[in-house]
Specification:
The chain is an alpha/beta fold. Helix content is 34%, strand content 14%.
C-alpha cells in the first residue's frame, strides 16, 4: 500500500559525486547490488557501468554530466527511499541531493515530512524558519522559507565558517598544548599528557564548566542539568540533585542562559565557562582529567574547591595570544604555519565562485576574531591568495561579541598590528580594518546600493552560537544563519571524517536528550533563521533558492 500511494516517479538531478554517496551504501549492502543495477533506467542517462565498476569511485568520475536517475516504483525502491529519508533523518537526503534536486510527490504520499504535489527540496535541519537535521524527518513539517535574495548585506565569520579545519588533528593539537603548558608551567602531573584518544568520547562542544566544583555540565533549554560529570566520572541523577537541588539547576547557569554575555567577562567568569567551539572544546577534558588526578592525590572523591580553570585559561591565552604569530613564540601558530595541509581544508572551488557571484548583487563582508596575519595564513590556504577580493570590506581582530554591542573605533593595520584610529565616517570599501563596530560597517556597505535601497536587510553567517548568532540577533536585530557541524552526526556512517569528535556516547546528542532540547538548540531556534552543518550546503544552491523550513524540534 505504501508503494501504491505514490502516483509519480521520483526524479533526481544529482551532482555525480553526491550520487555516489547515495549509491555506495546501497550497492555494498547484501542482496542489493543486482537490484540497484537493474533499477537504473538508462533512458536519458550517461551512466554505463558494469557490476565490477559499481564498487569504485571511478565509476562516478567517468560520468560526463549531471546524472538523471529515474527509479521505478517498486517495493524495494520504496524501502530504500524511505530508509534513506525517514529512518536515517532527512539530512541524508539533503546531503545527497543538494545540487538542484526536485522531488515530485503526490499529496497521497504522506510520510509526515513533505506533502505537496509541487517541487520542493527534501527538508533537513529544520527548526522554526531554520534548517536542522538532528531531528527525525517524520517530525518536520513545512513552516516557512528562507531565501538569500531577501538580503542586501551578507557577512561571514572565517574560522569554522568559510574555512574548515581537520577536527581530529586540531583538537588533538589543542589538548596537547594545553596539557603540556599545565605540566611544564603549573606543575601538574605528567599523567595529564596521556593521549587524547583514550577519552575522546568525553569531548563535546557546548559543555559548561562548574570550575569551583570540578564538574562539567550539559544544559537543557530551560537550564536543567541534563547530564554532568565530576572529573571524567558521570554523575547520577541523585548526585546532580544532591549538588544542585531537586530542580537540577545551578543559579549561575540560570543567569547564563538568561544573559550569556554577563558571564563572558563578568564577576562569575572564573566560576562558569561555556566551551563554545572547537578551539576551546578540549579544555573540558583537560579540566576533567586534572580533577581526577587531584582527587587521586588527595585520596578523595571530591574537594571543597578546585582552582584548575585559571591555569587552563592561562594556557588558552598562551596558545592563542596573537603576538605569538609574528614572534614565532608558542606551538600553536608555528604548527599551523609549518603544516597547513594537516589542519586546514582547502575550500572547494564552487565556494569561491559562489562568493564571487554573491558579491555582484550583494554587499559582502568578512568579520573574524582572528588577527589579520593569522587570517591571511588560513584564508590564503583555504580560499586562495586573492581571498581579500571576495569581500567588500574585511574586519579582523573584531573582538566579538563586543563588535555587535559596543561602539569601538576602527584601526588600520601596519603589519600585523593596529596602527592608526580611523574615524567611522572614513572607513572605505575594499580595505581591511581591526576592531570597529557593526553600525558603521552597516552604513558603509549600504552605500553600495546608493539610493536604490532605503533600508538594506542584513544577514550574518557563523558557527559560534554566542558570538555569531545570539549577539547579533539580540543586540543588532541581524538575521543569522548558524553553522553547526554536529548536524553531520547522522551522515557519519557514510564517511564523515570527524565522527569521533562530534559524536559522544557519554553526553548524547548535541541537540537533545530524551526529547528535551539542549540550551544550544534553543539559541538556534530563537536567534537563527536557518541552521546548516557547513557553508557547503548553502553554496551548492543557486542564490535565489528558497529553503523550506519548519518549527518542530522534537526528536
Amino acid at each position: 500500500m505504501f508503494a501504491q500511494r505514490i502516483t509519480q516517479v521520483l526524479s533526481y538531478n544529482l551532482d555525480k559525486n553526491l550520487l555516489f554517496s547515495l549509491l555506495r551504501k546501497e550497492i555494498l549492502q547484501k542482496n542489493l547490488q543486482k537490484f540497484v543495477i537493474k533499477s537504473l533506467t538508462l533512458n536519458s542517462m550517461t551512466l554505463v557501468a558494469s557490476k565490477a565498476t559499481m564498487y569504485h569511485h571511478p565509476f562516478i568520475a567517468k560520468t560526463k554530466s549531471i546524472l538523471e536517475l529515474k527509479l521505478p516504483i517498486t517495493k524495494t525502491i520504496i524501502k530504500i527511499f524511505r530508509k534513506s529519508t525517514v529512518t536515517s533523518n532527512c539530512y541524508r537526503v539533503f546531503s545527497i541531493s543538494c545540487g538542484y534536486q526536485n522531488a515530485y510527490i503526490s499529496k497521497n504520499y504522506n510520510c509526515n515530512f513533505l506533502s505537496s504535489n509541487s517541487p520542493k527540496p527534501f527538508l533537513g535541519y529544520s527548526l522554526n524558519k531554520r534548517y536542522y537535521s538532528r531531528y527525525a524527518a517524520s517530525t518536520i513539517m513545512p513552516h516557512n522559507t528562507f531565501n538569500l535574495n531577501n538580503y542586501d548585506i551578507i557577512g561571514f565569520d572565517l574560522d569554522g565558517t568559510l574555512l574548515r579545519y581537520n577536527l581530529d588533528a586540531m583538537v588533538t593539537m589543542e589538548y596537547n598544548i594545553i596539557a603540556k603548558y599545565l605540566v611544564e608551567h603549573k606543575n601538574y602531573p605528567k599523567e595529564l599528557l596521556k593521549p587524547i584518544d583514550n577519552d575522546i568520547d568525553f569531548l563535546q562542544k557546548g559543555l559548561i564548566l562548574d570550575a569551583v566544583r570540578g564538574n562539567i555540565l550539559k544544559l537543557s533549554f530551560d537550564g536543567v542539568i541534563l547530564k554532568a560529570t565530576h572529573g571524567t566520572k558521570l554523575l547520577s541523577e541523585n548526585d546532580i540533585k544532591r549538588i544542585y537541588g531537586e530542580e537540577k539547576k545551578w543559579d549561575l547557569t540560570t543567569q547564563y542562559i538568561n544573559d550569556p554575555l554577563s558571564a563572558w567577562n563578568g564577576p562569575n567568569a572564573d566560576k562558569l565557562r561555556a566551551l563554545l567551539d572547537y578551539f576551546d572544546m578540549p579544555a573540558s577534558l583537560v579540566m576533567a582529567r586534572a580533577v581526577d588526578l587531584i582527587n587521586e592525590k588527595h585520596n578523595s572523591s571530591h574537594l571543597s574547591e578546585y582552582k584548575i580553570w585559571p591555569d587552563i585559561l592561562d594556557a588558552l591565552v598562551f596558545m592563542y595570544k596573537r603576538e605569538n604569530f609574528a614572534s614565532g613564540f608558542g606551538e600553536y601558530f608555528e604548527e599551523l604555519k609549518n603544516n597547513p595541509n594537516k589542519y586546514i581544508h582547502k575550500s572547494d572551488p564552487y565556494i569561491i565562485k559562489w562568493l564571487q557571484e554573491l558579491k555582484k548583487t550583494k554587499a559582502i563582508f568578512l568579520l573574524t576574531g582572528s588577527n589579520i596575519d593569522f587570517a591571511n595564513l588560513t584564508a590564503s590556504h583555504a580560499l586562495g591568495h586573492n581571498w581579500r577580493n571576495l569581500f567588500d570590506v574585511i574586519i579582523a581582530f573584531a573582538k566579538k561579541p563586543g563588535f555587535f554591542t559596543m561602539n569601538r573605533p576602527f584601526y588600520s593595520f601596519q603589519g600585523g598590528e593596529e596602527d592608526q584610529i580611523i574615524p567611522d565616517n572614513s572607513i572605505k570599501m575594499g580595505n581591511v580594518y581591526a576592531q570597529g563596530n557593526w553600525k558603521s560597517v552597516e552604513k558603509l556597505l549600504a552605500k553600495k546600493f546608493g539610493k536604490t535601497i532605503k533600508k538594506p536587510r542584513s544577514l550574518y553567517i557563523g558557527d559560534n552560537l554566542i558570538q555569531d548568532v545570539y549577539t547579533p540577533s539580540k543586540y543588532c536585530e541581524l538575521d543569522t544563519v548558524s553553522l553547526v557541524e554536529e548536524l553531520e552526526e547522522h551522515e557519519c556512517q557514510d564517511g564523515y571524517a570527524f565522527k569521533k569528535v562530534i559524536q559522544s556516547s557519554l553526553w548524547g546528542s548535541y541537540f537533545s536528550i530524551d526529547n528535551k532540547p539542549t540550551y544550544w538548540s534553543e539559541v538556534i531556534k530563537k536567534h537563527s533563521k536557518m541552521c546548516l552543518p557547513t557553508i557547503e550546503h548553502l553554496c551548492q544552491h543557486p542564490l535565489n533558492y528558497e529553503y523550506q523550513c519548519s518549527s518542530t524540534i522534537t526528536e
